[in-house]
Amino acid sequence: RRLAVSEARFRALFTEAAIGIGIGDLVGNILEVNPALLAMFGYTAEEFGDRNVAEMVHPDDAASVWESYGQLVAGKLDDFRVEKRFYRADGAVIWTNLTVFLVRETTGEPAYQVALLEDITERRRLHAILEYQAFHDPLTGLPNRAQFMQWLNAEFTHPDRDRRVGLCYLDLDGFKTVNDTLGHDVGDQLLAAVAGRLSQRCGPGRLIARMGGDEFVIMVATTTGVDEVIRSEE
Fold first, then answer.
1. Residues 11, 4: contact at Cβ < 8 Å?
2. Mean pLDDT throughout 153-163?
3. Which three-class secondary structure state does DSSP give residue 92?
4. What pTM was estimated for this model as a whole?
């Protein structure tokens, strides 16, 4: 009777849970999934049953994830948690908070694995938007002062002490007159046009940022000296 009650509780939790739950064997074959996981991935229960977890994982996932997974199914770990990408049935990529834990036999040997997945795709999209806004100038689309300072700090801490960095600082002569006589809208158009020209003229290895107002800076990550920087920007 206690076993039946426990099974009923598990079934209620499994079926009604808002997060996706999947049960698999030790080689990644999917044995059972709940309705939330079906909705998340867009597969039917039968289609899930025909698949292995490895078929759905994004190829760019870090090798350390598979290392943790291998330790889990070998019984060396009881669980692990990671942000991980998967493919939906329609080919779209979804980001998940993935927690996988091991269920053992009474003897202690690994029996099967249970995965809990929370869809965080929208959260990551919003984070990417906020991060872009924090490090880019909204008018020109160029990296801003904060992004430039990160670049500069990275160069100062670069392990290659013989590495030389070129900086080219420029502003626009008479820009205040443009704003005062033609209006700020025209001034904004001029700044955007200058940013576009700089992006077109500067090749690979040139990092361009708008520092504010009519001030721009170009960083040349590796250079032999001032003459090379001047030639590369002409």
1. no
2. 80
3. coil
4. 0.71
Task: Report the SS3 class of residue 202.
Answer: coil
Whole-number Å distance between alpha carbons of 121 and 32: 23
Nearest residue to 54 (alpha-carbon basis) of 15, 94, 27, 93: 27
CB 104 within 8 A of CB 94: no
What is the distance between the alpha carbons of residues 157 and 99, in angstroms, rounded to a whole number? 36
- Give the mean model confidence (pLDDT) for residues 34-43: 94
For residue 11, which of 40, 32, 37, 39 has the smallest C-alpha distance? 32
Tell me which residue has tokens 């160069």.
Answer: 155
179: CB partners within 8 A, 6+ apart: 186, 187
In 109-225, alpha helices (H): 121-135, 145-156, 175-182, 184-201
The 10 Å CB-count burial string (b at 16+, else e) for 58-94 is eeeeeeebeebbeebbeeebeebeeebbbbeeeeeeb
